[in-house]
């Protein structure tokens, strides 16, 4: 492997690492850490393994067939099945986009003190402008790498010097705290799983692979991204959880805002680190807002067979860009209703969990079809793991709405 | 029509449970009080931590003020939610009389902390954070005693 290629792989891994955490991960991990300590860290591990398995499949389908998964799903499973998938994923994607745009505005509010509602329209316009003006590869790398600044949370945790043994024991021998119920524990487990395995991630990952012109030559890059980048992102999620478990939980603070994520960093490292964290959160959430906006365009365009993507001139993919703009405008409109951004995030990740089988089942089928994959279909181990995950995801999907009602949204 | 009836009942039940039924007895009222007190403690502790970090120059004023604003809004919202529920019996009225002063006092102190932070009056902010320990201590004592 040439040095240039090695650097490319390294950059891809770092980008996947920095781009792993979004508004949903920040909120879900901070909240569960403050409420359950490390008692739900195992769910992050389960979620990361799940996204690794399925993102690798999605990336491989794109690299081998030269087509993104949604495009192949429509052809392989028919328009009706793909339509169900499209409607569910578009709705959840829209909620996620609302949460991400609101998240950008909240981060700016934390930096400036000016109400986030005033920043919302500017955040939406900025997301659209970047999509319109900036090259795909630049977007991917610039925001992914800047998102790495969130690792300052892990440094702050180390600086605070927690009882590592207690943290590891909390993670490896999970218990339900006395003031919580089995229902809320299960609800937040589902939220964490939804945050780690959000559907837009695979749609974006596979469409992005096509945008980047991946071929069979890039299968190793695909593996490096998901096998290294995503688990590192998962470790960062656990660090977020640990930071609130150590600092906020003993004080009885429940971490219901994005501002709570900054408190352990301020305590451990001070003002400069808070600034670094805010920049990192901005980049990570901004990157996710771009990904969700593009995912809206990708899924709709791929379903209807329109020209899509940023690798062609906007004029050639006009309908794709119209869908992106409509999604951003709708998300902005929902955000401007003054719905609490954190609540929107919670609902988006929990509803994501409810729709996970709709996203992942077709990927499993397509990744096993030699018509598209030739000799690169799934191996036996991958199929076994994929199938086991599918069973888990179906159980999670069935339990989500009843749990949401019984626990009143995890209250 | 008959085939739709179970669906309608299910939808109505979902809404009834989801929207939260009014407190019917002391046990419901007490559980509502517990969640209000826990929420208030959480917001007060957030405000105290944000104030401490601001006073020690470990965070930006803008960030601390936003957190104080959020804490104020959430605490007064929680206190208002409990105040809006009609106590169903004499024991519930007693419980409300026991908790309301500490809840109101906490929400008021958090609001004043936000004010002090906005005016850059760090001395007053520290004094208010210190004062907040009293009502919060009472509320924490009540939660502990309640189990």
Description of the structure:
The complex is a heterodimer of chains A (411) and B (147). Chain A is an all-alpha fold. Chain A has one domain: Amino acid/polyamine transporter I (Up-down Bundle). Chain A contains 17 helices and no strands. In chain A, helix 2 (23-36) runs antiparallel to helix 9 and helix 3 runs parallel beside helix 9 (182-196). The longest helix of chain A has 44 residues, at 69-112. Chain A is globular and about 55 Å long. Chain B is mainly α and 147 residues long. Chain B has a single domain, classed as Four Helix Bundle (Hemerythrin (Met), subunit A). Chain B has 5 helices and no strands. Chain B is globular and about 60 Å long. The mean pLDDT of chain B is 88. Classes of the chains: A mainly alpha (411), B mainly alpha (147). Chains A and B meet through helix 4, helix 12 and helix 13 of A and helix 1, helix 2 and helix 3 of B.
Shape by Cα distribution of chain B: globular
Helix content of chain A: over 70%
Count the DSSP helices of chain B: 5
Number of self-contained structural domains of chain A: 1
Radius of gyration of chain A: 20 Å
Task: Give the count of structural domains of chain B.
Answer: 1
Share in β-strands of chain A: under 5%
CA-based shape of chain A: globular
Q: Specify the biggest β-sheet of chain B.
A: none
Architecture of chain A in CATH?
A: Up-down Bundle
The total count of strands of chain A amounts to 0
- In terms of DSSP E residues, the strand content of chain B is under 5%
How many angstroms separate the termini of chain A? 52 Å
| Main sheet: strands, sense, barrel of chain A | none
| First and last CA, distance of chain B | 49 Å
Give unreliable regions of chain A as ranges. Answer: none
CATH superfamily of chain A: Amino acid/polyamine transporter I
CATH architectural label of chain B? Up-down Bundle
């Amino acid at each position: 492997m040439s040095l240039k290629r090695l650097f490319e792989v390294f950059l891809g891994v770092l980008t996947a690492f920095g781009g792993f955490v979004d508004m949903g991960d920040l909120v879900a991990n901070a909240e569960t850490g403050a409420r359950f300590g490390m008692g739900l860290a195992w769910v992050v591990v389960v979620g990361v393994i799940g996204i690794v398995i399925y993102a690798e499949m999605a990336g491989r389908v794109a690299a081998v067939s030269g087509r993104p998964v949604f495009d192949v799903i429509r052809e392989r499973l028919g328009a009706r099945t793909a339509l169900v998938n499209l409607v569910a994923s578009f709705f959840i994607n829209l909620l996620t986009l609302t949460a991400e745009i609101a998240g950008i505005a909240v981060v700016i509010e934390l930096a400036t003190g000016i109400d986030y509602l005033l920043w919302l329209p500017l955040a939406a316009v900025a997301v659209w402008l970047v999509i319109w003006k900036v090259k795909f590869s630049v977007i991917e790398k610039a925001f992914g790498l800047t998102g790495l600044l969130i690792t300052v949370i892990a440094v702050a945790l180390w600086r605070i010097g927690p009882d590592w043994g207690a943290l590891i024991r909390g993670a490896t021998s999970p218990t339900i705290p006395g003031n919580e119920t089995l229902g809320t524990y299960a609800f937040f487990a589902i939220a964490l799983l939804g945050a780690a395995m959000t559907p837009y991630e695979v749609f974006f990952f596979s469409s992005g692979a096509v945008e980047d012109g991946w071929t069979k030559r890039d299968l190793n890059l695909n593996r490096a991204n998901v096998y290294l980048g995503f688990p590192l992102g998962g470790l960062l999620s656990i660090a977020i959880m640990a930071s609130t478990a150590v600092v906020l939980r003993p004080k009885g603070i429940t971490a219901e805002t994005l501002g709570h994520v900054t408190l352990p960093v301020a305590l451990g490292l001070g003002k400069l680190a808070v600034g670094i964290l805010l920049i990192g959160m901005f980049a990570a959430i901004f990157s996710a807002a771009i990904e969700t906006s593009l995912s809206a365009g990708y899924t709709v365009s791929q379903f209807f067979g329109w020209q899509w993507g940023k690798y062609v001139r906007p004029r050639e993919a006009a309908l794709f860009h119209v869908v992106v703009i409509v999604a951003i405008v709708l998300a902005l409109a929902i955000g401007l209703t003054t719905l609490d951004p954190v609540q929107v995030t919670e609902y988006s990740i929990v509803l994501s969990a409810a729709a996970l089988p709709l996203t992942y089942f077709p990927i499993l089928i397509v990744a096993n079809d030699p018509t598209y994959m030739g000799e690169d279909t799934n191996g036996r181990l991958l199929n076994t793991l994929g199938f086991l995950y599918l069973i888990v995801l179906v159980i999670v999907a069935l339990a989500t709405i009843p749990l949401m009602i019984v626990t009143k949204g995890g209250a | 029509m008959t085939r739709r009836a179970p669906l309608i009942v299910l939808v109505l039940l979902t809404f009834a449970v989801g929207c939260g039924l009014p407190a019917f007895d002391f046990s419901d009222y007490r559980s509502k009080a517990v969640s209000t007190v826990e929420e208030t403690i959480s917001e007060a502790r957030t405000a105290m931590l944000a104030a401490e970090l601001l006073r020690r120059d470990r965070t930006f004023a803008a960030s601390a003020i936003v957190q104080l604003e959020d804490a104020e809004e959430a605490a007064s919202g929680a206190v208002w939610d409990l105040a809006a529920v009609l106590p169903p019996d004499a024991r519930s009225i007693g419980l409300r009389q026991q908790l309301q002063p500490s809840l109101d006092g906490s929400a008021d102190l958090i609001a004043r902390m936000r004010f002090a932070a906005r005016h850059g009056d760090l001395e007053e902010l520290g004094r208010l954070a210190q004062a907040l320990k009293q009502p919060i201590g009472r509320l924490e004592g009540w939660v502990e005693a309640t189990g």
